[in-house]
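Figure-free illustration: sequence to structure, shown twice.
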Amino acid sequence: MADLRKAFLQAGYITNEEVLLTVFLALQLEKPLLVEGEPGVGKTELAKVLATAFQTELIRLQCYEGLDENKALYEWNYQRQLLKIQMSKDLSGSKELEDDLFSPAYLLQRPLLKAIQSQQKVVLLIDEVDKTDEEFEAFLFEVLSDFQVSIPELGTIKSLQIPIVILTSNNERELSDGLKRRCVYLYLDYPPVEQEVKMIQARLPDVGEKLAHEVARAISLIRQEQEIRKKPSIAETLDWVRALMALGKDRLDASLIDQTLNFILKTKTDQDVFQRKVGASRLLAAARAEKP
């Protein structure tokens, strides 16, 4: 686990021991890791860090409503098949041509098949799995159970290496018990103030101590406001700090908060809520307090 901790630190991925232990055990047991949490807490970044740590390829399947097996697993290269038919009209209808058309040479690998057939151990990121429907989820559960797939024309293809699988979910819908049982479960929450300070310092080493703490405390207060719908993500925290540093600032002030609010609150509705319920003066007072 020490090597994993070191790899996380080198990548600037600051987390706690509970998260580190869960990831370590998922790797040791070769089980998929299901990571749930609010958008922007570092779920996708975790997969990227693991790919860097193991010096391997990151294969990403971005999920969306309507995603089916063909888009996730494989498709036949129909254009190339038609071209082959046109070039072999004299063999049209022959068994030889049919076998050739459905050979691996005409197979387009999508993320799941690519991960299974990889010669090396890769990181397979199945991002936002909660956006798919229950039918696709059942198919996915079957693939992750045996790490093999069946292609009617080619037979069963077994995994050469069991990939490191990370599934992420934003909790848009409840995932099935079957999928959860297959995975090691991890919930990522927004980091506490001191942890977010370390994140800022790890990614932006030139940041001043006071600015890092003031921003982290300010962001923490904003996230606590229930009426703000789109809470600032960690990436938006970093963007805000970069913007403040670009302006040559080493402390927050009320006018600066108002002028750069669009870096952390990305809708007019949330900005209005902030002005009505929090306000720059209150936020500044909280940011400069010794405790969040």
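We now fold a second protein in the same way, so the two outputs can be compared directly.
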Amino acid sequence: MAERQITGTILTDSAIHELQTIFRGEVVGPNDAGYDAARRVWNGMIDRRPALIVRCAGVADVVNGVDFARANKLQVAVRGGGHNVAGNAVADGSIVIDLSRMKGMRVDPATQTARAEAGLTWGEFGHETRVFGLAANEGLVDTTGIAGYTLGGGIGWLTRKYGLACDDLLSADVVTADGRFLTASAAENADLFWGLQGGGGNFGIVTSFEYRLHPVSQVLAGNVLHQAPRAKEVLRFFRDYTATAPDELTSTAVFLSAPSDPSIPMHLHGTPMICISVCYVGDMEKGQQVVQPLRRFGSPLADLIAPVPYSALQNRVDAGLQNYWKAEYLGGLSDDAIDAVIAHVEGMPSPLSQVEIRHLQGAMGRVGADETAFGHRDAPYIINIIGMWANPHMNEAGIRWASDMWDAMRPFSTGGTYVNFMSEDGPDRVRAAYGANYARLVTLKNKYDPTNFFHFNQNIKPSVK
């Protein structure tokens, strides 16, 4: 009988064959065609070799995958969209429970709700809701999976108007570490439901989500671009502009290289820029008034704000690039904080890299800090330092740049960070991400996953094992 040595566990071919006989999806091993494609995730910096990848066709496959892993003492990674920068969807020597083929969805336009399986991306989700003139608080990139994004909180273009993605979560179906199938909602397994609203994948595998939707079809959105030497005055304007912004307006200041857009002179393509990106949700005439100060300020190089379909806001970022991110909630944008940003932006390692300062609060901030696992709702801004480049030989320099800039921004932090923007930052940063809610999350982990069966995530360690 053939045997395979996997992270200290003997896994026989007969055991794998037994799994295949009860599995409706696909079981992929290192010697199978498609293995390399199946283990690949969005962040090109992640190159891991799981022992098995089980591509689930439904909930029964998820339960069987969990039971198989537990019986064979295998470590488990869970893949939804595979878009998370930390690469937790795959792990060396593990079994990957891959949900990416589970894409069932039903929209109920009468109740303005949707039930969606965990393998959907936000681009796929939006394709179903747009026909009804409805939307969720979706991810900023269309290939982002709905599962990890929602479980981590979900900051998007509708956050100031409607809150976080996890605030619109009505219920979730979950497979726990002991193979049970539970439904979590405000009325059923309410403690688990609280933990799923921002607590990540620590408590089980969510197989489907029920969302509240919002009537959104057209928005007023786009960018106003300025050349980088004007960054200090642009950020000061952004600080003052956001101080009085209505909830309908979400905005972000972004340092980037100028895109190849016909509205920008060709000789400036690829040069450093600072832009303010906006999305106004509501009456278009009122929105035009709200964005007028932005359009008038400083004779921008390009004004690309226009009424567009909500779907136009989702970007596509190429998979396979090297990514290393650092993020921090900011207590404000003082002149010193602005100076620190500008000083480090100049060292960006690649024209693909960006630094985003996103304005928060609004509806997000009106939910109590302990009403969901997602805390830090009073932070006015979050900075995301996006190290991105194509050549792996740049990894050391790129990581150093992002880390140095993060260190420089720490004095202006609220002390917290956002799990969906975290690379592999360690347990102290996980604690910082949850703040005062961390102890309650540990209690929840003790109840639903006391052995830390689900630990390839921004991990909340149980206190009993």
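Summary for the second example: Residues 245 and 290 are 8 Å apart (CA to CA).
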